[in-house]
Amino acid sequence: MKELIDQNQELIRLALEEDIGAGDITTDALIAPESTATAVIYAKEPLIIAGLPVAKEVFTTLDPTANFDTTFQDGDRAESNDDILTVQCTLRALLTGERTALNFLQRLSGISTHTRKYVDRVAGSSVRLTDTRKTIPGWRGLEKYAVKVGGAHNHRFGLYDAILIKDNHIAACGGISEAVAKVQSDKDASQQIEVEVSDLGQVKEALESRADIIMLDNMNLTDIRRAVTFVKGRALIEVSGGVTLDRLTEIADTGVDIISIGALTHSARAVDISMRLVE
Q1: C-alpha to C-alpha distance for 204 and 164, rounded to whole angstroms
Q2: Catalytic position from the list 166, 204, 225, 226
Q3: How many domains is the chain partitioned into structurally?
Q4: Catalytic site residue 217?
């Protein structure tokens, strides 16, 4: 968890700087610097919690003496009106950090809650659900963390940690065989090669080129089943594009190995979480 905070320390700082600017002129005018208080952050709807360490870090940044109490941890389910986190620190830090802490919690818990719906839909299946690179710029590490909290897996983090030959790579190289051959001559022996395809002809070409993973991009169910039958386990098969919660079960039932879902991050709504001061 410390690594998560260390990796996102600058993002937390920028978020506070964005909100506070030259100073919280309302709070500074109303609240004495020495005043302390306790606040409770609570759920206003059922949700899967993600981002508690980040919310804590927001308040700690504003008041290093801040204390926290909770019976929850990331990945737990909270019901409506459950108290998620109690914070004790200066009143100024509570009021100034409230919105930033809630923004992190609401967004990340929204992703984990949304992801859990997909995971639950294919419970008992061997298919692996993953996210994509469709994340808010600067938030990728946190959003992919929230996906894992929700029970799914991470696809590649960026362009640096996995080989994925996409349609424009294929067009630039003149074909799948040419693109794979160029990568094979240059890659580390331990790296897998994934190729994005859009029809059954490209599935055949990718398999003949010895791709390790074949990504079926926006293909219909009939062609997905045909691809699974043709490949017969000689490569992993991933489905991507147009994956919705309603279609998830029927896609998983085709026998594919991986389903990557951009909606886990780009279509997750922020859940409703609030903060109140207590006596």
Answers
A1: 17
A2: 166
A3: 2
A4: yes
As a whole number of angstroms, the distance between CA 119 and CA 125 comes to 10
Query: Per-residue pLDDT averaged across 94-102, rounded?
Result: 98
Distances (CA, A) of 255 to 206, 234, 258: 19, 13, 9
Claim to verify: residue 98 and residue 164 sit in the same structural domain:
no
Are 256 and 214 a contacting pair, CB within 8 Å? no
Domain coverage including residue 40: 2-119+268-278
pLDDT for 68-81, tens place per residue?
A: 999 999 999 999 99
The answer to whether 166 is a known catalytic residue is: yes
44 is catalytic: no
Q: Torsion over CA of 151, 154, 155 and 157, rounded to 10 degrees?
A: 160
Task: For residue 172, count other CB atoms closer than 10 A to its CB.
Answer: 10
Same-domain pairing of 94 and 71:
yes
